[in-house]
Every structure is written in C-alpha cells, then in structure tokens.
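FIELD: query
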Amino acid sequence: MISLKKLRTVTAAAFLTVAAVAAHATPTFTVNPNSNGLATQGSIFTADSLNGVSSARISYTGTSGGAYNYTGVGYIDYTSFSLNDSGISAVITRDNFDYGIYATFTQTFSCSSFLAPGVSCAVTSITLNLWGDPGNDNTYNKATVNTNASVNTVGTQVLLGTVTEVVAGTAGINALGGAFQNINTNFNLTAAGQLFFISPNPFYQFAFSAFNNTSQGLSCNGNTNVSTGGATNGCAGSFTSVAINNESGITDFNNVPEPASLAIFGIGLMGLVSLRRRKS
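FIELD: result
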C-alpha cells in the first residue's frame, strides 16, 4: 500500500501542477506607458490582455499538394488593456489618448477546399510587428476585396515586439458567415519593448490571439445576386478575395503554449495514478 506520507507528497505535487496550469491561464504583465516617448501622465499598471479590432484582406494564391493556399495582410488596432476581464482606465494606461498600440501582419493559410462558409484552415506562417504610435495620430484603412488593410503612420513609430513563428493556429469562416482566428505564436520584445513591458523579465515567450466577427463584417468578390444563389456580401459561389473588418478579439501572453499546459496537467495526474498502482 502507498504510505500516507507519500500520498500526501504526490497529491501536493498534483495540486501544484493544477495550480501551475491555472496560473498560466491568465498570466499578468506590467506596463510602463511613460516610456519611449509614448506618454508622460500615465501610471505603471498590471494587465493580463490587450483588446483590439482587426482588419485584413485574405487572397487566394493557388493550390499545391491538394491544399488551397491563401495570404492575409492586415492590422490590429489595440484600443485597451484589461485585467480579470475588466478594462483598465485610459487615465492610467493613456492608450488611445497619448499613444496607440497596433500590430501589422502578414499570414499564410492552408485550407482543405476553397474558402467558404463552414471551411476552416490551418495558419501556416506569420510575420507580425507590434508598434507604439506616439501621439496616437495614425490612420487605419480597412480592407476591401481589392485592397489590403493598411496603416498610414505619422512620425517615428516605436517597434515593441515581433512574431515570426506559428505554434498552432486555425482560421476560417464559420457556418453563419463570420470570420474567426485562434493562433498561438512566439513573441519577442525589442529593446524599446522591454522598457514598455517591464515585467516579467524576461518577458513571456508566447502570444495567444483570438479574433472573430459576424457576417456583417465580411465581404467577398463572389456572387452577389441572391436570386441565383449568391449572397449580398459576395461570400458565395467562387470567390478569391475576402475582406474581414470589425473583427474584435484579445491577445495575451504565456511561457507555455496552450497544448503544453494541458499536457503538463495530464502528466501530473498520470504520475499520481502510476505511483499509486506501483505502491499498491
């Protein structure tokens, strides 16, 4: 039989594992908005996520090896920080007042068929830059079916961080016609980013983003004639370009990719079961 002392030890280890996973669910970070010339009246604050709105144009680039390939170009306009699902006052963060936070990105996708409502795709690559906009005076140009989403910058921009690798990601158009994306990536701060995101130090290695919208935020260059089976937004029939707008979402950070967190939890429980069997 397993001894009470060893059972307590293993049980404690299992609970520590569970606690570690729970802690990874919404890890916090500390920001100094009065850095890099972004703000002067803000206060150092703690948050666990950035909230924003994204726009992107997704274009068909061809078929290879049975996969239907697409490229997306767009931006994320981060309008606020949150902690425990509550927004942090802009009086503290100064975001969207003294400065702006935004990302520009290029992605590639691989789909099992032509993109359409009900089709999901794997995110195969990403290049993303996270920027600070001193003065908050940039202009954001939403995507159309003919033009990429873009940012017209004013003055010198501050590069805070970069993303270069996809850990895991899925995106597509759901059965109701809304676009969605859930992606885990690496994340690296620049020297300027280390002055802005001041803790933890070193900062988290991974970023997690989830964005979605409704069919009203979607337009395509397909059939718009409803009487012949089309859709008013053009997302029917054969379309090769999709403009995604009003896609809202969240980005947070961690040192452990989400699948690995679940694996750690599973390993902790299996260890407890294995030791109990071995000692019985």
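FIELD: remark
Residues 32-254 form one domain.
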